[in-house]
Amino acid sequence: MHLDDTILKLKLNKALETIRKEPRENLQKRLNQINISDLQKSLKELDADKIRQMFPDAQSLKSKVTAEDLDKLKQAAGKDYKDLYEQAEKLFKEI
Questions:
Q1: pLDDT class of 1 with cuts at 50, 70, 90
Q2: Are 41 and 86 in contact (CB under 8 A)?
Q3: Pure H helices in 1-95
């Protein structure tokens, strides 16, 4: 695994942890601090195969995120992040 992939894996794990643990209001604040362009770039770098490569047991990764977590993220994201949310949700379903 390349260094970039290792960093991306760490970021994904941190993002999943944040989604699970943070209240929706805190997620909104965090999302407002993120540069949308950077987030779009990161999502474009990902595909289901790359996630499976970074996480050999991708199903365990998928099981860490519940429908409630995704709903909380969707509510926190709001209209500005709708396209990003839909892209992430599609990717998550392909795993």
A1: low
A2: no
A3: 3-21, 24-33, 36-45, 48-54, 58-63, 67-77, 82-94
